[in-house]
Amino acid sequence: MAHLSRVFAQVAIDSGGELILDYRVPDENPAKPAVGSLISVPLGKRVARGIVISLSEQPSTPGLAVEKIRPYHRLLFPTPVIDPELSELGDWVASYYGSSRQAVLRSFVPSGVWKGGVRSAMETWLVLAPEMASSENLQRSPRQREIAVALESAAEKQLPVKEIPGKRSSILAIARKMEKEGLLKVEHRPAGDPFHENDDIVPAIPPDPNPEQRAAIERVFALLKEPTPHPLLLFGVTGSGKTEVYIRAMDAVVEKGKSALLLVPEIALTPQTMERMRARFAHTGKGVAMLHSNLSEGERYGEWCRIVAGEAKIVIGPRSAVFAPMQDLGIIVVDEEHEPSYKQDSSPRYHGRDVAVMRGKICGCPVILGSATPSLESLHNVHEGKYHLSRLDQRVDGCDLPVVRVTDLRREPRQEGAAPSIFSRELAKQMRARLDRGEQTILFLNRRGYARSQQCLACGSAIGCPHCSMTLTYHRKREQLLCHICGHQQRPARACPECGDASIRASGFGTERVEAALQQQFPKARVARVDSDTVARKGRLQELLDAFKTGKIDIMIGTQMIAKGLHFPNVTLVGVLQADLGLQTPDFRAAERVFQLLTQVAGRAGRGDLAGEVVVQAFSPESPAIQFARHQDFDGFAEQELQMRKAFGYPPFQHAALILSRSEDAVAGHRALLDLVPYLKAAGTNLQVVVGEAIPCPLEKAHGQFRFQILLRSRSPARIRKLIHDALAAVNLPKTVIVVWDMDPYSLM
């Protein structure tokens, strides 16, 4: 019998579940995988992809005959895609958040690689051969001539196929024929830099830091010298220059040959941040890469390749960028660390900020958490001595914080039986003044669409989604009723489906209706709306933000994607249309979210030489969250909110977890959790875990499935995880019910 290899690879297979199998590493194969390598392997009758998680001289399954272990096929990438530090981080994420290792590993590698290998995530380029440039060779068929002229006029005589006018398949067919004749070359390359890395960049001149910034920078520099630094919470009011502290810290790291990671909460912030970073780091010659879900597969793969190769020392992106394959990581910055968007709501249900803190611990590098409204979890960690604290209490250049006025909508005049006006008298007056002075206004409303619902005046019922416990939002431009949960669409009703009465009307308002009201009340104003309906096309968001930045738009109405991080010096007025909208959510974090959002959106005003004002409209202006935000008093809000959380045993004083069930059968879904409760409570007593009841979720039905939940709380996350694991193993649950759990949930909906 031929000699068989004595090296075995344990491979985590991309199969949708937890599947780790052994494969032989043949001696005759010159390309040997390492731990972290991406390889293709036989799985039944098909070829699968997986990542090598360990190598050993013995199979992981005792007693398994060596001759029955199949060899792997080939390496899919020349170098390991996951280094030991990332592998350790992945193990922690899988364990802490109760996810399969496969789900975590999928977050590490671009989807284009998993789907079809490297070539599927590459671009096709045409490169002009030197002899093609002569006029004799250009006298060919019209289509060949068009391709040749396009290439000849391009920089370096080459173009990606997607930039040549015409049908891609037709262009490729002609190009391959021209390639056979030696007139050009067809090349497959990783997707090029989608951010024009070769464009001329005007290096930015670093501003002189003020005393507060200088103190924060020195604090970070001191952390860079520590072998195991604690995270630093950089608490700075809006416009206080936190980004300058980030840049100085990152620059110090990059100068030493290390890499720097900057996480931002919204994709909307990434292009603006990218532009600023490239300008500031132009002098270093170090590449800046960007990773986010709006990139095409090819673009994301191209950026990923640059990072793996060490060509990009600075990486910017939202939460998934925390898994970027960076070498010699020297610092991690989490901007707007309080943002709920850092929490992923599907498996693996990780929190980007907390994963960043763990990655910093594994890599031995500082982590800076920046915010004007820190999360109570981070503030509590400061109180516990786990995090350092630096404060920036003054805006840069001595600018004052905006004046905030709260308008009580209950006292606004209106006709009997009519809905209140969208704009209060004070807000309308202030908007007109800005238009007269050539200044800009931002209006914030965290609800898109034209009207919240269609409601019957006779019986009071509103038209709901057949698949979700939600009313359908009316979108006038599309002339559709739309569910913002599952995407269900239907035509608007002409009569009430419940009672048949024709007195049915649009109720409430969203950003689309605000846009229409602005155009009616201020017909000469240049108005733009920024929400997920208007920025669906790739690049549209950046176009609108650029137009606003250059003064081509007077009033911008938008949802939370415009509420933070954006810097527009000519904005002197911010209007918040329904400030108490989020207070109606049945969630212990509701007040914290409202306070943070109001403070953040108010911070968009007065960031230049002109003073800013904010008008906050609310039906419950006496709410503590609104009043504390009015006075920009984070310390007062945090003190009161922390007292409440401690009294009721909520985070940050205890960890929480949600067990959720989903089923098309409401009775079965509820029964599954009812069966879990006795075990959880009995075992939870010994583990000091407080177990709640099995209750319907606030959003009881979504995507056609009924939803129920159990809330668990304990000072020890490990005890919560053990209790859940033991309970799910001990209790038989029906196959018609899906049960998942979420550690440190950020939404109880």
Care to describe what's here?
The chain is α/β, with parallel strands linked by helices and 749 residues long. It has 5 domains: 1-80, no CATH class; 120-190; 211-396, Rossmann fold; 403-450 and 509-644, P-loop containing nucleotide triphosphate hydrolases (Rossmann fold, 3-Layer(aba) Sandwich); 655-743, 2-Layer Sandwich (Alpha-Beta Plaits). It is built from 20 helices and 31 strands. Strands 11-12-10-13-14-9-15 form a 7-stranded parallel β-sheet, with helices on both faces. Strands 16-26-25-17-24-23 form a 6-stranded parallel β-sheet, with helices on both faces. The chain has a 5-stranded antiparallel β-sheet with strand order 2-1-4-3-5. β19 and β20 (480-482) form a beta hairpin. The longest helix is centred in the C-terminal third of the chain and has 22 residues, at 666-687. The radius of gyration is 29 Å and the shape is globular. The chain starts with 7 loop residues before the first strand and ends in a 6-residue tail after the last strand.
